[in-house]
Amino acid sequence: MSVSIPKTNTALMALLKADFAVLRANRRSAILALLVPVVILISWKPLIPKLGGAYALSAAITFGLMAIGLMGYSITVARDRDKGIFQRLRVAPVPTWAIMVSRLAIQLFMIMLLTILIFIIDKSYDGVTLTLAGYVITFFVAFLGGAVYLSLGQLIVGLIKNPETVNATTRIVYFIFIMVGMFGELGTLGEQVKKYIHYSPYGAVKMMLATSMTPQTWSSATSVAVLISIGYVLLFAGVGIKLFKWNTK
Amino acid sequence: MEISQSLLNVENLSVNYGNFEAVKNISFSVLPGEIFGLLGPNGAGKTSTLSAIEGLVRFSSGTIIVDGYDVIKNPLHARAAMGVQLQSTTFQPELNVVQILQLFSGIYGVPLDKNGVNRILKEIQLEDAAHRRFAQLSGGQQQRLSLVISTIHHPRLVMLDEPTTGLDPQSRRQLWERIEAIRKSGHAVLLTTHSMEEAEAICDRIAIVDHGKIITIDEPQALIEKHRNDPEVIAVSRRGKITLEDVFIALTGREVRA
Questions:
Q1: Under a CB-based contact definition with an 8 Å cutoff, are residues B235 and B247 in contact?
Q2: Which residue in B94, B110, B143, B149 has the most chain A C-beta atoms within 10 A of its own C-beta, making it the best mutation to test that interface?
Q3: CA A214 to CA B104: how far, in whole Å?
Q4: Residue A71 lies inside a defined structural domain of this protein
Q5: Dist CA A202 CA A181 (whole Å)
Q6: Record keywords: Repressor included (chain B) (predicted)?
Q7: ipTM rounded to 2 decimals
Q8: Which residues of B touch A26 (CB under 8 A)?
Q9: pLDDT digits (tens, 9 = 90+) for A138-195
Q10: Is A249 part of a structural domain of the chain?
Q11: How far is B105 from chain A (nearest CA, A)?
């Protein structure tokens, strides 16, 4: 009886390497996920003097985070689960959390890429610059915002098994967040909706991001947005992990 | 059966899916250097038994010991002691053959440099397909890759769920040789199959499973001899020769399962 368990960090590195290879192979869809916020940022240039740089920047990052969390994460997880890829990994001597940590690390890398890309475009194209503190805080708040949408993606794959339905649901949720969030926030859908939007995953994340760009404007409302975001992460991830099944049968 | 010597010991195993009892209180052991076959009609409980051993489904009662490790108490040790080829093995469709080999060598903690990869590719005759994705391989190539991955860490117990389904005779024969090579190295193989020819050709012992229960366990030839004169066996036999398939049908019934 001399079986030794492989080191978790060795297994995790192998998983990460493979997941990055998958990301590289799917670079077109990764680029498309990054393209939406970039297009928004560029097309909103004439509106920046009216809306403010922080508004445009936070909206662009929020849309990107939604695309990464909802579509990048949940669709690939639903597909791999349906194909039995997770089952093949689970029969190996690797803790199941390592399989998911590797997947999440890829999405966090995408969030990092998105935030840096938005900063660069905003500075070079729209001429918006932040203080060093603004860049640093926004960068880290983007990860919390990303966690909100990743956990929402986890909730969707926890509730829905069929990969086609997951695909359709994430797109609908994405569309609703963009349309209702954007127009609702501007008051187009009425004052009541505008009020609720502030407490939605869209509104809370956007407020955190907008304020983090100008840290001197941090208020109690921003702290509430941070707490609401953490609450969403705990709720969505908690339910999503509890309901998650490793196979679709 | 010498439990202390067995590489796999399953005792009083039951697996339930809701109110449905897929596996009902079954017990069997697999010894080193043995190819043990689990045979049964569709839905008999073969894959559920394998899934319980592999840790993919929770079993409601019983114990499973793999190479001395309880699969509940020491799941990672038990998994490290076994190599698994699932019924419908698939890998991330974006990964090519080399990337898949590197992924699983890393997961199983087996150092694999470029020479190691080339040696494996040569061994499974996939040198020309090194940079092809899994979905682009033929059925035989996919099975060879799956088998080599399930044995990449030289496990003492290899579990194969219907490994030759869909293979042409050449690929099937080649796979049998690979399975027999595992046995020769002193390791054990537990496989499920629908092919009586396969069970007769390579299994040292077989268990016939139906409705979640083991009906009988024996050597294939011994089973044929034991049931040769049963009226049910004679009734289902064709061309006057009693085969393992005749015994199997007589024991499990003629009705087609879903």
A1: no
A2: B94
A3: 47
A4: yes
A5: 6
A6: no
A7: 0.86
A8: 94
A9: 999 999 999 999 999 999 999 999 999 999 999 999 999 888 888 888 778 888 888 8
A10: no
A11: 8
The pLDDT tens digits for B22-44 are 999 999 999 999 999 999 988 88
Fold that domain B3-219 belongs to in CATH: Rossmann fold (3.40.50)
Of A21, A25, A92, the CB nearest to B108: A92
Give the total number of structural domains in chain A: 1
Nearest CB to A5; choose among B54, B77, B89? B77
Q: What's the Cα-to-Cα distance from A194 to each of A29, A102, A179, A200, A202, rounded to whole Å?
A: 32, 37, 12, 10, 12
DSSP state of A6: P
Q: Nearest residue of B to residue A90 by CA position?
A: B56
Nearest alpha-carbon partner for B82 in B99, B64, B58:
B64
Instruction: Please tell me whether residue B151 adopts helix, strand or coil conformation.
Output: coil
Interface contact flag, A84 B89, Cβ < 8 Å: yes
Q: What are phi and psi of B53, to 5 degrees?
A: -65, -40
Q: What are phi and psi of B192, to 5 degrees?
A: -110, 145
Does some domain include residue A55? yes
Q: Are A153 and A73 in contact (CB under 8 A)?
A: yes
Token output for A146: 């990303």
Task: Decide if A2 is inside a domain.
Answer: no
Note the residue count of chain B: 258
Regarding pTM above 0.95, the answer is no
Domain ranges across chain B: 3-219
Closest by alpha carbon to A90, among B33, B198, B76, B202?
A: B76
Measured distance CA(B175)–CA(B153) in Å, rounded = 18
Domain residues for the domain of A140 are: 8-243
